[in-house]
Amino acid sequence: MTSPVIIRLQQQGSLSQAGAEAFLACRDRNRLVDAGHTLMQQGEPMRSVFCLESGWAIRHRSLANGRRQILNLLLPGDICDLQVAVDTPADHSVTTITPVMLSEFNPGRLADTIASHADFASALLWSAVQEEGILREHIVRIGRRAAKVRLAHLLLELVRRQALGGGHTDGRIEAPLTRELLADCLGLTPVHISRTLSALRKDGLVSLAGRGRLQIDDIAALARLADYDTRYLHLTQPDHALDTALSEAS
Q1: Which CATH code for domain 145-249?
Q2: Which runs of E-coded beta strand occur in 55-171?
Q3: Considering the entire predicted model, what is its pTM?
């Protein structure tokens, strides 16, 4: 089975088979970790780049009062963390929220592959640009959008991003998203999240798909509510139901 990381990087359009194989040859090991495992600790040194082959994690900052702000969710196909290349302590933590299969990559060999395979370097640059776009959009989401729109926008992003790594394309979100986790993502309280989810369910936009997982039932209507625009994801191959809904609406 093709690695979700390769599936995602091929979205950029220029990654060759040789470049993909050279990247995978930098891998030191694969390992399975449980949910709730800290992969990277804020303030500590980082020693390897890792990619998610399966499972979900969160990138977050912890405050002195014990509260946390989730900066991003990491999905299969995501790369974390290229900061190791500049040899500085981690400025955030990464914690798994489901069991996760990791691929760990040697930073030195990865740097050599970037230097020797221009197509891989281009795909990796696209990945970094997309992550910056996601973080910029997250600032707008929590800073200027109403609660209902914040939640709708995040759910649409997760549905679109999980497909980039070869995940579900039917509107089902693969990981259970608790009220507490969504609250820490969106700068709201769990009670506010619960009320907002109830409103979306009442409108027929989302439902529970079992095991606490959410299902988007009307992706076009949810996209209209969120005023969603995928340009911040820098997609070169629009081939998802969300892309179709947005194209038909424009």
Answers
A1: 1.10.10.10
A2: 57-62, 68-74, 79-80, 93-96, 100-105
A3: 0.94
